[in-house]
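Hi team,

Filling in the usual template for the complex we talked about on Friday. All components are listed, including any nucleic acid strands or ligand strings, so the model treats them as one assembly.

SUBMITTER: L.P.
PURPOSE: interface mapping
COMPONENTS: two
RESIDUES: 1213
SEQUENCES:
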Amino acid sequence: MVKGKKTSSDTVSVVDGDGEQSCCWWWLVHKGTTTTFLIVGLFALLVRAAVSLHPYSGFANPPKFGDYEAQRHWMEITINLPIQEWYRNSTNNDLSYWGLDYPPLTAYQSFIHGLFLRFCHPASVSLFTSRGHESYPGKLLMRWTVLSSDLLIFFPAVLYFVIVHYGQPSRSRKSDIGWHIAMLLLNPCLILIDHGHFQYNCISLGFTIGAVASVLSGMDVAACVLYCLALNHKQMSAYFAPAFFSHLLGKSLRHKHPLLEVSKLGFYVLGTFAAVWWPYLYSKDSVLEVLSRLAPFERGIFEDYVANFWCASSIIIKWKRLFTSESLRLLSFIATVITCLPSMIQQIKSPSNRGFLYGLLNCSFAFYMFSFQVHEKSILLPLLPASLLAMEEPFIFRWFMQFAMLSMFPLICRDGLVVPYLALLALFILIFDAPDQQRVKESNYFYNYLGATTSLQLPRAYSQSHARAFGDSRTTMSAPPTLPQSTNTAPAGAASQPPIATPAFRAFISRLSSSLRQGFSQRRPWTELADRSSFSKPESLTEAYSRIRKNFNYFRVNYVTLIVFALAVSLITHPFSLLVLLGLLASWCFLYFFRPADQPVILFGRTFADRETLGLLTVLTIFVVFLTSVGSLLISAMMVGIAIVCAHGAFRMPEDLFLDEQEPGSAGFLSFLGGAAASAAAPVVSRV
Amino acid sequence: MGKQKISSKGVQNSCCTIATLWWFYLVAACIKVLLFPSYRSTDFEVHRNWLAVTHSLPLSQWYFDETSPWTLDYPPFFAHFEHFLSMFAHFIDPKIVHLQEGLNYSANTVVYFQRGSVIVSDLCLLYGVYRLTRNLDSRKQKLIWLLTIWSPMLFIVDHVHFQYNGFLIGILLISLSYLEEGRDLLGGFFFAVLLCFKHLFAVAAPVYFVYLLRHYCGGGIGRGFIRLLIMGGMVAAVFAVAFGPFFHLGQIQQVIRRLFPFGRGLCHAYWAPNFWVFYIMSDKGLAFVLRRLGLNVQTPTATFTAGLVGDSSPFSVLPQVTPLMTFMMVLLALSPCLLKAWKNPQPQMISRWVAYAYTCGFLFGWHVHEKASLHFVIPLAIVAVQTLEDAKHYFLLSIVSCYSLFPLLFEAQEYPIKVLLLLLHSILMWSAFSAQFPDGAETARPHTEKKVDRHESSKGSFVIGWIEKLYLVGLVTVEIWGQFLHPLVLGDKLAFAPLMLISIYCAFVIMYSWIWQLTSIVKSR
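RESULT (copied from the run log):
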């Protein structure tokens, strides 16, 4: 089959063929999607097997241990108790000790894995006596259950998705498909949580991918069944429910007999649910019993430190103190629905495959950001549609993955998985940026259209209308104006007064230079910084921390200089980012800070109020800093600088250092900012 | 048009070559880091002890210390290498390099440090591979990197089992790359350095000697003699730097005793798949048959692994094997290759010859470790991309020699890892070789023809023949039998049988590879 395809494309074009031959990854992908999948899949399995060598959550940490113990305990319960008692508190089943709190499919899965464990190593799942069981074979077998579930459910689902999504690929796209398979299978977050931390997310996510692929291939019934299975394995899969619902509804409405179609799908949904819940359907009480185990409403609005809206904003707004749990529930519900609505409405109105994928991303993100009781591991759910869209939105995908990894770091630290965390992150970045790939740069829709337009066009637009004015004003200061005024723009009043000569600006400049000079004079001799004899390894982390603090107090100026130097070097080596940043700074300075109070901003003939200007600039800044390479460059340079400083601070013995005179804490190197801000704020305040 | 395209591509590729090479290395490094907590053999403690010995004792005590049973038995340069590492180790955790307290130390610091040091020392391999491949076209380059940097054997031996083979083979590759460039003096220098790192590499010394004598020292008696003096002087200088201090201290005998422990037996505890496996098996078979015929055959008291205890022979029928005999056999097996090297010393053949020498050493040597198969599998990867026959031969050889390493990792935890490593390697090799040697439909295309007809023998595509397929199926059967069926059927009886089966089964391919290499060397012009 492959051969036939090759010969058929032979006739199409020879040049195209040569392009592929020169492709860096031809040797890997030339056999077709399935072989590529086999290779990448084997590699992904190897990575998973290697990660599973590392400790799991709650390793050697009695009395409650962690998720590993929870899963093992469920196996113990399910194979030793009758099915009706799984969710019921009894003498044999103490629900306060890791009681089952996932839907029945998880229980069945635990049952099957429990049988396997009992066959190989009975001691690890015997009733009561196995609590907190930790042993070499026990760990190994548990790890193998996750590996096998991954292999049996997640991997085939990904293969199905890729085949459906790309169909019969053109030859030049083969390496792209290989890349996308790798992105799906080598999701570092998923690997860490499933094979490091220990959970079975691969099952529910696998079912979800299967359902998505079924939707894409038009098999709505299969999609319903698979999605219900996912929902019945982990109730968190409900994050995708609005997207599935609206897309399938929208599709059904376009059918000849909409009602029939909807009822057919509803029938399959109910049927799947009934099949899964069958053992509990004998009485209403038993169903409610299970349901009460699933709903986490008795817990708070967020747990630990999860990177969602409620947790992040609770720094400023103390949600938990301001509102009761009920009103918070309502609030989070409303917020979630509102944020889900746009994609839902769009999908009902005009369902499309592409829109469906974006809808999945939007809904799961909305749930993650705004729903009640979100756990940090729930980041896996919005990550899934993001990884399905990796080809369309590589830029968003990459940032999302990195921030998801960052948000999981505290959890990973607790589990002692820092080494695999770093290795997997590095692996992800390496494969994301695999050499000789044009795709990421070429087909980056978001970056191209928004990034390029906004980061280049906007400053250009600004400069076209305003820099002329500034340019003119600058020339008026030194020499008579020579630039000819263009006719179409330059509204009245723009060039009349030189804005640069505002007192605020002059004050700022003079203050800046004087405090820079003053600050720099406080630096310690560089030789002292690099004194070979006073380096030693810190005994402990706390000592390192105290050293860093002392050293920072002493070497403050040098350290800041170092960080600034790191920033400068990275910016100079990336001139584009430097330009963008300078443009941003200039637009802030000239449009907001130092603009005379009596001159409104006039752009394209429209007058902008102060508040509008501020808003626009803020949005622009957020956009430039967080959504282009400038932000990552700045952050990475900062990180490098801080890392150097921390390393130096930790290893430099502070004993021989003392502060010459008691300097006031605030009068440091950066004090000019406060002063400048105050002086710069003065005109701003006067304007309002 | 095609040519222009290729040349412009070459320019383009040369700038991204190094980035791609680093990419290969870093991806491998990520997997190696993930393998940190895996099983580690006693070699880990051996190397830790060497760190301690070289750090806490003066040079004069290095080869005398017996605090740990794992005494220093590598040549001085390796001891200096350990000394160099121990400086960092001391900085990270002083207990690592403590002679007594550090015994069997297994904290995270020591594991991370030692495992990390292997990963970093692999940079030497990276450089060697880079030097060897920098003038090849980009597809061959990638193929070679795939076969060497991502070699599953290196993963198993260096990064799980724990050794520094990647580093040492890297030096060998650097030496080979200089020889291929015709810079014989540097090639000889690096080989001498390698010998002072690990003396087991000396098996290729005859090949080096003959080749350098003919290639470097040729061209007139006078010029040849001067060049011989230069080369000899340089090699002597390297050895003097390594062994000189010990000679000065009068410890040279002790060093030699440590380096060549001839008290060991013919075979290692686990039999390497070499010629002696057949020898032992035919001895057993003969004894069995003779006993059936009614002859009185004594069962031997000594074992093959324990060494020469007195005069008792471990063989019941066949004659006793002595180290001298194995030495002579290695030389005999080498002689055709030496003859070729003498007659026509070609730089492009040196990798083959050296690999052949290590194959001979592996097949007929005394007390051979199964890990020694690395010494010829990695250099052979360099020549595997040249012709279709080479590729086919290498495909089988590398699968089998990787499989023969499986008994090294006997714990259940690493089982999926070693199987996945081998599977991944096989399928990557298959995919890459079939892209390199495409089938008829591909070769008919004008642009590929230019590339293909450069090596004439690569007519036809990369297909695995039915004998190979049958053999590989047999390999799977052997593995399934040894892992699952044997414990089920026979229980604890004949516990050694699966291992024996593996080494016999693998020995067939190693023998085949030896014969194949021999014929290809003899046939070559």
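MY TAKE: Chain B has 22 helices and no strands. The CA atoms of residues 467 and 473 of chain B lie 10 Å apart.

Thanks, L.
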